[in-house]
TrEMBL record:
It comes from Methylomonas aurea. Residues 148-171 are annotated as: Disordered. This is Lipoprotein. Residues 155-171 have a biased composition (Basic and acidic residues).
Length: 191
């Protein structure tokens, strides 16, 4: 026959309590359950960033060759991705095309066609940079035209001054010749 021993029951709840706490403690040490990582989506932003970084790492000749190839592909089959690459490339190389043309093409791309907000912001930044470069180029061209105009005026004055100097010298020579003729005539008449 089995006897009921109350001393044996006393440790049982303590054992169960410790076992439960140990289970809770081990779950806390592991941290909250981690959700499965979402697949990363490669956006236009990363593509443009990679393209720009690769182009920046090239020498001037490599950039020019890359830009000429892009321009040729874009002429054959116009594409938003190539337009964005030309935009990025034009910041680094003149060979990537005509700024006003690139700006027109960028303006024709609807903002909602970009994959994400970062791409829209990058395009906005690059667009403003291209506008500044274009403005600076116009100012430089204007100054170069003015410089050529001033140089032409100076050259004309210099030429006129040279002609005046030459004509003055010719007059002096002519007068010297006349004076010598006169002297010869006088000495010839004296004989």
């Amino acid at each position: 026959m089995m006897f009921f021993n109350p001393r044996l029951l006393l440790p049982a709840p303590l054992i169960l309590l410790f076992a439960g706490c140990a289970e809770v403690d081990s779950n806390l040490r592991q941290g909250p359950p981690v959700a499965a990582a979402e697949p990363t989506v490669h956006s236009d932003f990363e593509d443009l960033l990679d393209f720009g970084a690769n182009l920046a790492a090239m020498n001037a000749q490599g950039r020019s060759e890359t830009c000429r190839g892009l321009a040729k592909r874009h002429k054959e089959t116009p594409d938003k991705t190539i337009t964005l690459q030309l935009m990025t490339g034009r910041l680094l190389s003149d060979a990537c095309g005509d700024i006003p043309k690139i700006l027109d093409e960028l303006a024709s791309i609807p903002p909602e066609s970009y994959a994400d907000d970062r791409t829209r912001r990058l395009v906005a930044i690059h667009t403003e940079a291209l506008k500044r470069i274009n403005s600076a180029n116009k100012k430089i061209s204007s100054l170069e035209r003015k410089q050529k105009s001033v140089q032409n005026v100076l050259d004309a004055k210099d030429t006129a001054g040279t002609k005046k100097t030459e004509s003055h010298l010719l007059r002096e020579k002519l007068e010297a010749i006349r004076s010598m003729e006169k002297q010869l005539d006088e000495t010839g008449d004296a004989k």
